[in-house]
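So, can you check these tokens?
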Amino acid sequence: MSTSDSRQRRLAGRLRRPLLGLVGVAAFILLWKLAYMFTWAPRGTLPDPFSIPAALVNEWRNNHLLPAVGSSLIHYVWGLAVGTLLGFGVGLLAASSSWFDDFHYMLARVLRPIPPLAWVVFAIAWFHVSHAGAAFVISIGVFWVNYFATAAGVANVDPRYYELAQAFGHGSFIKRVTSITLPGAAPGILSGMRTGVGQAWMTLIAAELLGVPGMGQQMNAAAGVGAYGAVVVYMLAISLIYSISDGLFSLVQNRLLRWRP
């Protein structure tokens, strides 16, 4: 095989995935267009896919889009930060301390099955319709993702590493955590944090549907007047912001785990 043929094969291999991805998107839009043309959904509830750019321009010109995005990001960031830190801390303590694990495991089993949105009632009662209330609901969903990811990651660290650390004088709790536990559990912990980035968006939009200012509220308002094109605009905005945040976190994750083979 010549060098030219080899280069062409490598180029074709690199282009295959993005090209097939574009074909998949085109097929989805075609299916959407057919559903609109033949009214497969109740009339008026499914917008024409080719009307979405005009709906985007309308939301932009009416100064609805950017304020909604900014408002959502406020409670998103706070809820994500609080839920991640608490989930990481409690999960680390639960997997590192047998007495704490025994102390809290029944409480965890009682609270874990309760969905984050069930706390909306208390969020409104305690914080009213505010950023703090939305952040509270978001943090609950993110907490459990990071709690279980951290606990599982720490529990899966090879016990022989602790024996080796003990032999080299790293027997204290702090030294074990910093030199053995965190490096060994880092892949699982970071995977949980990355999952939490997406979980926070799902919880956020549901919380905003109850009146907290943001993209969810704008979606609810648009649906109330039949502007389903605007609803799709905010759905795509959420997808774009999540893709950016997930991509940035992936870069950080890869950099922190660059020691892995």
In short: The longest helix spans residues 173-208. DSSP finds ten helices and no strands in the chain.
